[in-house]
């Protein structure tokens, strides 16, 4: 009897191991190497991006390992997936399997209660609150304010200049628009300090999360703390004005979020969620729109026929205006060709290189196992530059977007997709169209710098896209 028990005790672990191996054989990890713990392939990817070889780096992985592979990025084991099915899985997948979760560096800098981190009912609650201000019906009333900001910017930074570096100027413009229209932050002495801290904060968002004094990550964390302190003061000011009834619920995004209440008269969005989502919108609105406008000017300078068509559309609109009259929502609706140019720019140079999700449980994907807790990494360019989806992908051709229905689902993803589509995309469309209207109708330009750009992690053209500009005679 004792011998039988001993034999069973010996055989049970062996049988369990054999069973586990059989079960695990159909759930193997994707090919590839995790590399050095924490660091992994992070430095290699960042180096490739900073020499504008990020897409090539990813395609080399695909050639070597196939459509799915494992690696380590920014401190965590990661699975890289790509293609239309992968995009659909990321943006419209089962919320019990995949959740929003950015890299630890982004999460530490922007906070853990922003839309990029929230899932399920929390995501819906906060997103619905943001959309109550950012939906087209609400934004219509702000076109005139946007028009005023753009005119003021051109008068201060373009008028009388022979050369301009476009990207820094567009960042200045989009930051001022965000401060004025979204946050109700008027011109004041501490805005320059705010801008400096903000710029330092975003530099370390894609970085290895090592908190040492000399690292980008550490500098960004300190800058993030300073930015949050400034924003807390701003939120508190808005609270006081609402209590004193000297502010209206829809005069800016912050007061709108502070005013949202449920049936029990409780605040819908917490102070922490307001703070973290302000941080997110600042980064998204500042960088993505400034990059889009900059690269539209770059591509227009290289494509005279496209430039001519955009100019004709914008001059037709300008001719219908009384001198000094601001653009209207109806004017923007007529800028169909210009927006197709914007979308083709977003296809070729998407501001967002890629993003991350996290596996909430073990997932079978493409014949491989994505273990619970691992990151899932996707990249925009993998479908944007796929010649089976967009023929001659290196050719700048706005006609691709004449019929939106002809673009396959989950192949064009500069703003994300499905329920995860960027809530600020309409805001970005308005400021882009207003800025392009005044730039193309008031100035001619030619490139003074070379045609190269890097990613850090947003696209940055050589010398900030240096242009020689010539003002047009206003009729």
Describe the structure using short key phrases.
475 residues, 11% strand, five-stranded mixed beta sheet, 12 strands, alpha+beta, Cytochrome p450, 52% helix, disordered N terminus, three-stranded antiparallel beta sheet, 18 helices
In short:
The chain has 475 residues and is α+β, with helices and mostly antiparallel strands. It is built from 18 helices and 12 strands.
Q: Note poorly predicted spans.
A: 1-25
Biggest β-sheet description? 5 strands, mixed
Percentage of residues in DSSP E strands: 5-15%
* Relevant CATH superfamily: Cytochrome P450
The helix/strand order is HHHEEHEHHHHEHHHHHHHHEEEEHHEEEE
User: How many domain regions?
Assistant: 1
- What structural category do the secondary elements indicate? alpha+beta
CATH topology: Cytochrome p450
Description:
The structure is a single chain. The chain is α+β, with helices and mostly antiparallel strands and 475 residues long. It has one domain (28-471): Cytochrome p450 (Orthogonal Bundle), CATH 1.10.630.10. It has helices at residues 2-25, 42-50, 54-65, 84-92, 104-110, 120-134, 136-139, 143-157, 166-182, 191-203, 216-243, 253-259, 271-302, 304-319, 329-333, 336-348, 381-384, 425-442; strands at 68-73, 76-81, 98-100, 163-165, 354-359, 363-365, 368-370, 375-379, 443-447, 453-455, 459-461, 466-471. The strands form four sheets. Strands 1-2-8-5-3 form a five-stranded mixed sheet, sandwiched between helices. A three-stranded antiparallel sheet has the order 4-12-9.
């Amino acid at each position: 009897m004792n011998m039988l028990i001993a034999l069973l005790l010996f055989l049970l672990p062996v049988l369990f191991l054999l069973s586990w191996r059989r079960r695990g054989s159909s759930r193997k990890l994707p090919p590839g190497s995790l590399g050095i713990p924490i660091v992994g392939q992070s430095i290699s990817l960042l180096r490739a991006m900073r020499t504008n070889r990020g897409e090539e780096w990813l395609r080399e992985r695909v050639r070597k390992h196939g459509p799915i592979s494992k690696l380590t990025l920014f401190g965590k084991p990661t699975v890289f997936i790509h293609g239309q099915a992968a995009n659909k899985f990321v943006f419209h997948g089962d919320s019990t399997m995949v959740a929003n979760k950015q890299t630890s560096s982004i999460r530490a800098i922007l906070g853990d209660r922003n839309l990029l981190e929230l899932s399920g009912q929390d995501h819906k609650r906060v997103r619905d609150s943001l959309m109550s201000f950012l939906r087209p019906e609400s934004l219509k009333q702000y076109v005139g304010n946007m028009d005023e900001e753009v005119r003021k910017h051109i008068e201060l930074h373009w008028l009388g200049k022979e050369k301009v570096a476009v990207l820094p100027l567009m960042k200045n413009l989009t930051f001022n628009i965000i401060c004025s229209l979204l946050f109700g932050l008027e011109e004041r002495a501490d805005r320059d300090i705010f801008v400096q801290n903000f710029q330092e904060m975003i530099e370390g968002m894609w970085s290895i999360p090592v908190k040492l004094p000399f690292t980008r990550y550490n500098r960004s964390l300190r800058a993030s703390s300073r930015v949050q302190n400034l924003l807390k003061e701003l939120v508190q000011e808005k609270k006081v004005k609402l209590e004193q009834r000297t502010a209206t619920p829809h005069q800016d995004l912050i007061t709108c979020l502070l005013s949202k209440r449920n049936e029990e008269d409780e605040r819908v969005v917490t102070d922490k969620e307001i703070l973290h989502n302000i941080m997110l919108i600042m980064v998204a609105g500042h960088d993505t729109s400034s990059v889009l406008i900059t690269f539209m000017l770059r591509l227009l300078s290289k494509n005279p026929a496209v430039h001519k068509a955009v100019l004709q559309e914008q001059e037709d609109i300008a001719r219908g205006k009384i001198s000094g009259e601001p653009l209207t929502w109806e004017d923007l609706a007529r800028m169909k060709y210009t927006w197709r140019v914007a979308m083709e720019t977003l296809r070729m140079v998407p501001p967002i290189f890629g993003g991350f999700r996290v596996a909430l449980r073990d997932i079978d994907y493409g014949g491989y196992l994505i273990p619970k807790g691992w990151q899932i990494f996707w990249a925009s360019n993998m479908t944007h530059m796929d010649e089976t989806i967009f023929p001659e992908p290196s050719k700048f051709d706005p006609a691709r977007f004449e019929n939106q229905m002809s673009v396959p689902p989950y192949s064009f993803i500069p703003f994300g997709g499905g329920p995860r589509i960027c809530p600020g995309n309409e805001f970005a469309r308005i400021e882009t169209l207003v800025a392009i209207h005044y730039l193309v109708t008031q100035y001619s330009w030619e490139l003074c710098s070379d045609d190269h750009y890097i990613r850090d992690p947003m696209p940055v053209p050589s010398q900030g896209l240096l242009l020689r500009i010539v003002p047009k005679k206003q009729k």
